[in-house]
Amino acid sequence: MKKYPLEFKVNGKKYSVEVKPNMTLLRLLRSLGFTEVKSGCEKGDCGTCAVLMDGEPVNSCLTLALQAQGKEITTVKGLGTIEKLHPIQEAFVKYGAIQCGFCTPGMVITAKAFLDKNPNPTREEIREAISGNLCRCTGYQKIVDAIEAAAKKMREGR
Amino acid sequence: MEMIKEFKVIGKRLPSHDAVEKVTGQTKYADDFALPGMLYGKILRSKFPHAKIKRIDTSKAEKLDGVHCVLTHKDVPNNVIVTRFGQTRAVGGFEGIFRVLAEGKVRYYGEPVALVAAETEEIAERAIDLIEVEYEELKGVFDTVEAMDPKAPKVEDGKSNVIARFKIRKGDVAKGFEEADVIVENEYMSQFIDHAYLEPEAGVAWVEDDGSITIRVSTQVIEHYREIAHVLGIPESRVRVITPKIGGGFGGKEDITVEYYLALLAWKTGRPVKIVQTREESLSFRSKRHPYKFRYKTGVKKDGRIVAVEAELISDAGAYMTLSPWVLLYSTVNAVGPYNVPNVKVDTYTVLTNHPPSGAYRTFGAGQACVAYEQQMDEVAKKLGMDPAEFRKKNYLKKGDTMANGWQIPNTVALHETTDLVLKALGEKPKPSGPKKLVGMGIASGMCSYGRMIFLHDTSRSKVRLELDGSVTIECGVQDVGAGQEASLCQIVSEVLGVPLKKVRIISGDTAATPIAGTTTATRQLYMSGNATYKAAMKVRDNILTKASEILGVDKSELVIEDEKIKKKGEKEGISLRDVAVACAEEGIELFCEAQFNAPFGEVPDPETGQGRVFPDFTYGTTGAIVEIDTETGEVEVLKIASAFDVGTAINPMRVEGQIEGGASMGIGWALTEDVKFEKGIAKAQSFAEYIIATAVDVPDIKSIIVENHDGLGPFGARGVGEVVLAPVPPAVINAVADALGRRIKELPITGERILLTLRGES
Ligand code: FES
Ligand code: FES
Asked: For every residue of B151-163, which 3-state class applies, written as one string?
């Protein structure tokens, strides 16, 4: 299969690659070393592969790599670092929202996109917002707690 | 040994040591790891649930460019093995035949038939398609009762499909039923459920310079290296299994997943090999929770005392025995639940069918029993016209009572307390939110053991080392599935040695580098490895205190370690832990200890009566649920869940709540939506679009209630919680639905469709 050139940014860094047209963004990102983007189903059903594309959340398993042409991708590693966590990450840690952690990168990305749009959500709105991200471990409660607390902190920080 | 009574770290809501690593995406799970020159492995699976293999032709696949090897059963040194699951002791009658790759015939749809390793995943997939297998389809058997008929097709040729049976005989049931004022008989059914961990089964294997094999794989049992060595026909010392952080297990990564295939492909090609299963493979072909058929007959006096229970349980083992007899034994011991019943007769069977092998799943058979006995408790209460909670309270086990298997309970059973707390948290049953709605409330109590069956003679080892700068390293072969297996050990050591959590590091899950700590199953890690780690840390502490006492001239019994200082109780100043560590090192006093903890050892219970202790101890608790049903759509909304468990001592209440909340969510799915749905042996649910687990909008805020009576067998009096938190949830939800409908749907899951049919049948 013919390969096509693709230029895009991931977490602020520019990449020029050649990809087959059927390559998904998920597979490309993981092959470039962004293993924080998880592959839980490759069918758009679980949300573990969520990334931001120009600030909008997408399931990277349902996005073709070539759709990222000229776009800016953000993964969970682009939000914060071990030394300087993003307030959402900080809240996930503090409120015990992480068990096995496999859903966490996607969950944090979805939460980020959501709070950017709705900085003062109710718990019901938070639940609605993350309902495309499955978690088998936590029962979601501490994730909702964390997103609620992060929203408060981000509002105050403004 | 000295006891620590006032806690600085234990019981605190401290974030787990690995949370930051996980939330920043640093954690390298099994599939996040690669090696230069790595090949990709794929599995050819059977296209029939039951068929003779007449011919396998791999020649076309072998000729494909980029293919490094194609393997069938002929290439496996020991293809037919006896399954053993990380136990230290062989127990006759519990071990079944297992074939690494199908040989002669296939016994379930999706059974591995051949393996390929190739340069890329695409080439491996193409090679799989090029392998020709000629089958002759055989009549399959998919129903347990049919499979028990001697005339039914045999899954293992020439052998009965009934592969294990247990009995419990306590008292005299015939006499019990004669004394009874009311007798209630019912049948119930539970379904096939998938673990649905978010991380599919995955791993990488490679050959070391010395020719030995290393497998880095997502597993709850690194000790499978022994079976892997046996399959390859090489010494155990030449196989190493490492587990990275696991993306969820719940029992589904307890038996071997991809290890044999990885090891074989790496061993044959000499190259690193990766296998990652697709979600479809995981949902359709991997082990499931055993479905059960239950028959219960309960005799009670008018005042609500249970006088007799007779129960028959039949489980679907699938095509290979694997863990089925053990799961069945859990169901058997749990068959009457946490109730004091003088006369008991239990008969249980596990039966081979042409379904994928059923396996371990959170509660290991205790949960299925709870689904049945707690529905039955409600049915009996209804017949008696008694409040379900009052009826249960009349019969709860208490300290000193004997369970159905004759074990006398030596510690607290706090079920009265957990039930009262749950009822208080639930409050009044609310009014329906509209005219077409029905509201129901239900409770259920449950129990589950922690620690493995005592005839397995379970042990765990852990090593604690104080560094010269006062930081601490723990080496322990635990597998961390995300429930805090590592984090609890860190918290224990932090408490015992007075070192802040951030200075404690743990190295885990590596058969070549860490002491063998046994399986992460059976809610055993806090109990077993927690005790081993505590023991090791206490030895180091003792050495430190002895030296400090000499330096300070203060009697050891008066010394405490606090905030990295050793000081006389009540005093502010003392000597730093670091200085004492250095002083010890100079004199050759040991700053490390590797300790082993042994569970109580016992024998298999008497086969005719089932009498005999099976488990070290149990955890007990209660769940309550309020649901609302839309009578037009059949949809069930869970409005409230409250769960209370006596956890002995909560090492970290935040993590205990996390278990309770996760258990609740899983239990809602079990009761209402989850079903792999096999039709003639083929799974209908092949993706998360068809296999519906609870999402954030399906779960209400859960009220978690932690009761602590401090008399468990774990460190600091802790009891295990990881499994028991699930057990009473499904029956609580089911009982709430039955309360709302005014009648009971006895088959799971209680889907909208089943509810509508029931409502229509009524009108
Ligand atoms: S991997 Fe993309 S949604 Fe599941
Ligand atoms: S923490 Fe395990 S799936 Fe969410």
From this structure: CCCCCCCCCCCEE
